[in-house]
Amino acid sequence: MSQDFAGRRVLLQDAGGRSHQLLAETLTRHGLEVTAGVAFADLQGQVAKRARSGAPFELVILDLAELPPEEVRIGLEGIASAAGGTAVLLAFGYPGQRTRVQQSGVNPMPVFLHRPLKEAQMRAVLRRALRVPDQEPGPAPVSGPPNPPASRKGRILLVEDHRINQKVVVSILSSAGYEVEVATTGVEALEALARSAYGAVIMDCHMPEMDGFEATALLRSREDPNHRTPVIALTANTMQGDREKCLAAGMDDFLGKPFRREAMLATLAKWM
User: Fold this and answer.
1) To the nearest whole percent, how much of the chain has pLDDT over 70?
2) Is residue 179 within 8 Å of residue 148, measured between CB atoms?
C-alpha cells in the first residue's frame, strides 16, 4: 500500500454507517493520521484547537449528504476560518449535492469527491489537495515549444482531459504565438487560475470530477469583477441550447468540436 501521504493529518467527519468506517480504514492504510468520529457541528472546534497546537489538520473530509444547504454554508465557512488557510476542505456526496452546496454561496467551495467512492479517484484527489507529487507513471505533460519566441501574444490556459485534443489545441496556439499551459480537470484549472493570470481560458465543458460549467461558475464567484478572465467553451455538443448553457455558466464564447484553426484563433483574437 502506498505511503505517499504518511504523517499527513486529516480530520474525518463522523457520518455514521459502514462507509465511514471503510473510508477511515482506507485513509489509514495510505499512511494518513486520521482523527475520526467527529460530528459536523464539532468540526470547527476541533480544527481551531489543532491549529492552536501547532500541528494543524491539513485536510478536513466531510459527508454532506444529510445536511441542509444553509447549515452546510455556515459550517464550511466556519471550518475554513478556524483553519486559517492550513487545511483543505474535501466533501463527498452525489453530483446533485455538489450543486446544492455551490448554490448555497459557500466560500471557499470545498473540493468535491463523488460517490460511489473509488480508491483510485480518491488517491488522485488527495494528491492534489495535499500537493503530493504524482510518482505513478503516466503520459508526458503537454507543452508548447521549449523556447518560446519573445513575440508571444499571451498566455492561454487550456482545460481539456482528452490527450489528442490537448495536442491539437497546443499545436494550433503555439504555432500562432501563444504560450499554453494545460489543466486536465476543472479542479486543476481553478488551482492554476489561483496561482497566476491568463489572457484567456479555453474550457472543455465535459470532464470528470468537475466539469467546465461548474469550474467557470466557481471562477466567476471568486475573481475580481474588474479583472474578468475570458473563458471560451469547448464542447462537442452544438445544439441550440448549448451556447445559452455556456453563457449562463459565465463563459464568454463558444467553440464546437471538431474545431477549426481559423475559428479558434479568430475567437481568441476577439477576447484578447
Assistant:
1) 82
2) yes
Residue 110 grid coordinates: 470545498
170-194: string of b/e by CB count within 10 Å (b at 16+)?
bebbbeeebbbbbbbbbbbbbebbe
pTM: 0.51
**Region 154-271: CATH code:** 3.40.50.2300
Q: Round to whole Å and give the CA distance between 98 and 214.
A: 10
Residue ranges covered by each domain of the chain: 9-129, 154-271
Half-sphere exposure of 63 (CA within 13 A, CB side): 20
Type and span of the H or E element at 130: none
Pairing verdict, β 33-38 and 154-159: unpaired
CATH architecture, domain defined by 9-129:
3-Layer(aba) Sandwich (3.40)
Strands (E), the chain: 9-13, 33-38, 59-63, 88-93, 111-114, 154-159, 178-183, 200-204, 231-235, 253-256
Per the prediction, the chain carries an average pLDDT of 81
Give the C-alpha separation, 180 to 170, whole Å: 6
Which single residue is written with the C-alpha cell 478556524?
82
